[in-house]
Design a protein that fits this description.
eight-stranded mixed beta sheet; 16% strand; globular
């Protein structure tokens, strides 16, 4: 895997990466703060795909913008296009996870000639915070308010979260605890889970939740423009996004395919083979 730095439209330095592979081009709009290791079957040069992605602003190797307000979906969209151009992806399938699904459908909106298909995993196109805590079946407005309130509270707790995250040992016992927590499904293999957690815990969580709060401003999209093939995949045990919300999103795209997998919000770590198969199906 190769990493590279690039300058986005507003001058922010963004860290991109590519798997150095060959095959159909894939632009990965990752989950917020998720490292490349979250996709264990796609980071190798032998994956059968040419994958490119990036770190969100202020996370991983990317710098924070000079203007701290430049952290909305429009800014992430600009970063995504800069990465695609730098990596030489003229046309590509967009693979997206969680918050990245918002960016994926904005890409399909602004450059339909380049986006060949979209595979959205555990996320909805816009209104993500309305879909939070979907299994509780509350009203969308109440769920939105609750999710924003929780993100703001976690932003305040950022320094404490930093200390806890970095002092927690990472070993197979930790992986077992996480896999039996109810948040991540037991299908997540320790050799996939631990490298992801090791990278994720290095974030500044005050900044991480600042980015999350900004994403709440992205409202549900009118999806009438979507003409490319679309597959939405969700986890039956996802405590953040429910099947109900995914079904509503898929219904707004008449040709969309909805696939539910046995897993949680962290399907890339739990069902990598199934997601790769869905990606190959879209490419075909």
């Amino acid at each position: 895997m190769s990493v590279f730095d690039l300058t986005s439209a507003d001058g922010t330095r963004i860290r991109g990466w590519t798997n150095d592979g060959s095959g159909p081009a894939v632009l990965l709009c990752n989950g917020l703060g998720a490292p490349a290791q979250s996709w264990p079957l796609l980071t190798g040069s032998d994956s059968g795909f040419r994958v490119a992605s990036w770190d969100y602003r202020g996370l991983g190797g990317s710098a924070r913008p000079a203007d701290p307000k430049r952290i909305g979906v429009a800014d992430h969209l600009a970063d995504a296009l800069t990465v695609a151009d730098t990596a030489g992806l003229d046309e590509f399938v967009v693979l997206a996870w969680s918050i990245g699904v918002n960016v994926a459908f904005e890409l399909a909106s602004v450059c339909p000639g380049r986006v060949r298909a979209v595979l959205g995993v555990a996320g909805v196109p816009g209104g993500s915070f309305q879909a939070m805590f979907g299994p509780l079946r509350g009203a969308a407005r109440a769920r939105h308010a609750g999710a924003v309130g929780a993100a703001k509270a976690l932003r305040l707790a950022g320094p404490a979260l930093n200390r806890v995250a970095r002092s927690t040992p990472l070993n197979r016992a930790t992986a077992t605890l996480i896999r039996h927590s109810g948040v991540v499904h037991r299908a997540a293999r320790p050799e996939y889970l631990l490298p992801t957690v090791a990278e994720f815990r290095e974030h500044d969580f005050r900044w991480y939740f600042t980015l999350a709060v900004a994403m709440a401003e992205h409202h549900p999209m009118d999806l009438a423009f979507v003409r490319c093939p679309v597959t939405l995949a969700g986890g039956r045990r996802d405590i953040l996004v429910s099947r109900h919300d995914l079904e509503r999103a898929a219904a707004r795209i008449p040709h969309a395919k909805l696939v539910m997998l046995d897993g949680s919000h962290f399907l890339p770590l739990e069902r990598p083979a199934e997601l790769t198969a869905l990606l190959r199906e879209l490419v075909g």
